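WARN no homologs supplied; continuing
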Amino acid sequence: MQATEPRIVEQPERQYVAVKELVPMSAIGRIADRIQEVLGWLGARGIEPDGAPFLKYNIVDMERGLEIEAGWPVATAVPGDGDVFAGTLPGGRYATVTHIGPYEALYDATTGLLAWARERGLSWDTTDTDAGERWASRLELYRTNPAEVPEPDKWETDLMFRLAQ
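OK structure emitted
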């Protein structure tokens, strides 16, 4: 596994479409599989994605479950339909790192990014709720298409976690 040096970046607001599920930690792959479903939804409407697909972790409770969205950014607001809904990724400062390697190693990259931020006294844009820790924006952006790059050790994934303002 490789990773770039963590850094802080400014991000503008971004429109997106996604599906959402509450899943146990062991079933994250189930929601990740729905990325293609959202892409098909866009294609059926003649809409091109405007960036890399992502998972957005809304609520994190490692014991009870995770509320996760699987989506794609779009250039302009799109009305949702059925399971697919429209949203806006918040702009602002994000701590980010690019992980190069298989998805199974993302946990280590996430742990490293969390430690890096803690060492610098940075705090996340989160709120504690009864359901778990609610994140304003905690993203995994999948920069590499496995169909085009079959070697998992070459897959690039950006972790982007919004900082408290």
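The mean pLDDT is 94.
OK
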